[in-house]
Specification:
heterodimer, A: 106 residues, alpha+beta, 5-stranded mixed beta sheet, 13% helix, globular, B: 338 residues, FAD/NAD(P)-binding domain
Chain lengths: 106, 338
């Protein structure tokens, strides 16, 4: 199973096995990793599953569609490497992905 | 004081259908919602986006669903209290007394919380201590646009609200529009208009900039904005407007003594009552084993919660199960003439 590493704002590292097909958001929510709210439940309709992706992974992720970029406008302190974790579907290619969780989601 | 059988908190699809179910079994209710219109997330987050999983409706938008639900509850003449957030809850002689942010009071036998993920509130600047400017030189919505006349205004955001106000205020004020990227989420015609105004010098557009800090003692005198590459600019400004959309917050409901787990209210699946007698929770806000965050699940939960409300509203009567197709009483309540 691919391993995804979530680094929370207080620098705690959580490395979790996440099943292929789940999203990075679901991996966090199902494993009680703090800091991912996912208010809308994965519908790209809020910006509360916002994460910062480690630079070396940026090119390996599926590109953002317009809706995601629009929602990131609403995120707390968006940066160049911001993504909505509900739009990142876990697969073998993402094995080892590292994301940082922002200090707040709203 | 509004005296009714039930108060519904939240005018999203789940709350609206619960009102229908209450009406059909002969209970009265009123609905409170913090937004300025009914529809909840359907209207606020995705009015134009299609929904494909409402039973017997192959496809509809959030707006159509809301309008149909409103049409369906029309016979019950339900009173809506919009732009109101519930604040205080008290139990007096087996009845619940609720007060809202606008000081409206309700006296009800039971309460149905259909609050989604919480009430919608404006998303604020992520800058420390900026609350002190809120209401005097920092705003998240516009109530009186006259105060901006001949002033310098810095607008942050890239959606329709930011673009529309930038265009409108550029007629009478010096407008700076600041957005974190080159693309905008607002409609293309507004984006073009803003770019035109910028080219004509009637508006100053700063893209790839975000807020760094606010300067000023009691009022904002200027803002510092920071470019993606790190460069910082200081802009003189009298007012700052932030339009970053809305977030959802549970708010005062958190303090009501309900069992809350991960921002969700725990309920039983028999009638969706919470740990407090007479308070029910349905839709996205409730949690139980097997919960699905679907609108259709909210409808089911609302139908059962409505029946759960009956014993509190009419303790001496027994509720008999009836079909709307054949129930004379239900049809009378729906105003159907034969």
């Amino acid at each position: 199973m691919p391993k995804i590493t979530y680094i929370t704002h207080d620098n705690n590292t959580h490395t979790i096995d996440v099943q292929n097909g789940l999203t990075v958001m679901e991996g966090a929510v199902q494993n009680d990793i703090p800091g991912i709210d996912a208010d809308c439940g994965g519908g790209m309709a809020c910006a509360t599953c916002h994460v910062y992706v480690k630079e070396e992974w940026l090119d390996k992720l599926p590109t953002k569609d317009d809706g995601e970029e629009d929602m990131l406008d609403m995120a707390f302190e968006p940066k160049q490497n911001s993504r909505l974790s509900c739009q990142l579907i876990v697969s073998d290619e993402l094995d080892g992905l590292v994301v940082n969780i922002p200090s707040e989601q709203s | 004081m509004n005296k009714k059988d039930v108060l519904i908190i939240g005018a999203g699809p789940t709350g609206l259908f619960c009102a229908h179910q209450l009406g059909i079994i002969g209970l009265s209710c009123e609905i409170v919602d913090n937004l300025d219109k009914a529809g909840g997330q359907c209207i606020e987050l995705y009015p134009d986006k299609p929904i494909y999983d409402i039973p017997a409706i192959p496809e509809c938008t959030g707006e159509e669903l809301t309008n149909n639900l409103l049409q369906q509850i029309k016979p019950f003449n339900i009173k809506f209290h919009l732009n109101e957030r519930v604040e205080q809850l008290k139990k007096i002689d087996n009845r619940w007394h609720v007060r809202t942010s606008g000081n409206k009071e309700f006296d009800v036998a039971s309460i149905v919380i259909a609050g989604g993920v919480g009430s919608f509130e404006p998303r604020k600047f992520p800058v420390k201590d900026c609350e002190k400017f809120e209401g005097n030189s920092l705003f998240y919505s516009i109530k009186d646009k006259k105060i901006f006349k001949n002033k310098a205004i810095s607008i942050f955001g890239g959606g329709d609200t930011a673009l529309d106000w930038a265009i409108e205020l550029s007629n009478t004020s010096t407008v700076n529009l600041i957005h974190r990227r080159d693309g905008f989420s607002g409609v293309e015609s507004s984006v073009q208009k803003v770019k035109e105004l910028n080219d004509q010098g009637k508006l100053n557009l700063y893209t790839k900039y975000q807020i760094d800090s606010f300067l000023g003692e009691n009022k904002i005198d200027s803002v510092k904005i920071k470019h993606d590459e790190g460069e910082i600019k200081e802009i003189k400004t009298d007012y700052v407007l932030g339009f970053f959309g809305l977030i959802m917050q549970l708010g005062p409901i958190l303090d009501w003594g309900l069992n809350i787990n991960k921002k969700k209210i725990e309920v039983n699946t028999e009638n969706f009552e919470t740990n407090i007698d007479g308070i029910f929770a349905i839709g996205d806000i409730c949690s139980y084993s097997g919960k699905l965050k679907l609108i259709l699940s909210g409808f089911h939960e609302g139908a059962l919660a409505a029946r759960g409300c009956f014993k509190y509203a009419k303790p001496d009567e027994k509720l008999r199960f009836e079909f709307s197709t054949t129930s004379k009483a239900a049809q009378e309540r729906l105003g159907i003439k034969k």
